[in-house]
């Protein structure tokens, strides 16, 4: 097993922790309040991932984790992180006044959800409640967030993935000179997420807290940037498909959050923001 890249939030060169969880394609390491994920290089980057070739998990929950001078050891594994490329997302480009791929993303997601049987009863209603709170009743945002955190199936439940997608849109738009509205909406939503992140699984809480601080995985960032900047509109279908393929249902729920985030900003299909 050889490390080929690491996310920009992976600490170093020295740290210690324990193995948190082990799966067929990934292993989570609890380190300094973060979950570092060691996973097969076929999967995309996250801020706290170490991508490896030849993935064969040989570790148990509770095993010690040690990194000394860039050499990471846990279970039977020793990974050399000293010279691996570090994935860092590009700074957000300036937001566009139009989102021409909105309808296309929605249609691709609808077809994917139907084909894979990924409908989550109750998710749409909870998402609509969050939209109404963010666009008119900010005091209701914490309650709307509480109804989404931990809701639905999966290691990262559907409601959590949706929240991450919405935060990604608001964060990237706010940071790309999108005006005060995205920044206010992001702060309001991020505060609600921080308040309630403890209500879900450890893995989902990790990604919620990262999202509340403006940190996201590669597929969601690529899709959001293509949509909100308008810089590469031809890439929207491929980036949507890449985002949809994340996990069993996480991708579809994250894309639902992206669409919700656009609605918070007043975008509708192929029209300027209101």
Write structural notes for this entry.
The protein is of the alpha+beta class and 274 residues long. The chain has two domains: 2-87, SH3 type barrels, CATH 2.30.30; 102-264, no CATH class. The protein has nine helices and nine strands. It has helices at residues 102-116, 123-136, 141-148, 158-175, 180-196, 202-212, 218-229, 236-244, 250-264, and strands at residues 2-7, 15-22, 26-31, 34-40, 49-53, 64-68, 71-74, 77-80, 86-87. Strands 8-7-6-2-3-4-5-1-9 form a nine-stranded mixed sheet, with no helix packed on it. Helix 4 (158-175) runs antiparallel to helix 5 (180-196). Residues 269-274 have low confidence and may be disordered.
List the helices and strands and how they pair.
Blueprint: E1 2-7, E2 15-22, E3 26-31, E4 34-40, E5 49-53, E6 64-68, E7 71-74, E8 77-80, E9 86-87, H1 102-116, H2 123-136, H3 141-148, H4 158-175, H5 180-196, H6 202-212, H7 218-229, H8 236-244, H9 250-264
Parallel strand pairs: 1-9, 4-5
Antiparallel strand pairs: 1-5, 2-3, 2-6, 3-4, 6-7, 7-8
Helix pairs in contact: 1-8, 1-9, 2-3, 2-9, 3-5, 4-5, 4-6, 4-7, 4-9, 5-6, 7-8, 8-9
